[in-house]
Design brief:
The chain has 79 residues and is of the alpha+beta class. It has helices at residues 2-21, 62-78; strands at 30-33, 36-40, 46-50, 55-58. Strands 1-2-3-4 form a 4-stranded antiparallel beta sheet, with no helix packed on it.
């Protein structure tokens, strides 16, 4: 019993070391910009990776915001 517990603890330590020293494997559509991991989907959508949330979020650029604001103004004027 003690041997199996010791082996289990060693395995946990090895996994912890492997996860901290693991390098990010980028695919063909992923790249880094200024230390930020970026992914581009086949439809052209660009995503940024948030390391705190461990999730991909759409990248919002100035042009996209401008188009949304113009669209909202026209919607408000017409309705």
């Amino acid at each position: 019993m003690a041997d199996s517990l010791r082996e289990f603890e060693e395995q946990l330590q090895q996994e912890a070391l492997a996860s901290t020293s693991e390098e990010v494997q980028l695919t063909a559509n992923e790249y880094t910009v200024g230390g930020t991991l970026v992914r581009k989907d086949p439809d052209g959508t660009v995503y940024e990776f948030d390391p705190e949330k461990h999730a991909w979020f759409p990248k919002v650029c100035f042009r996209m915001l401008l188009i949304l604001l113009i669209d909202c103004k026209f919607y408000c004027v017409l309705h």
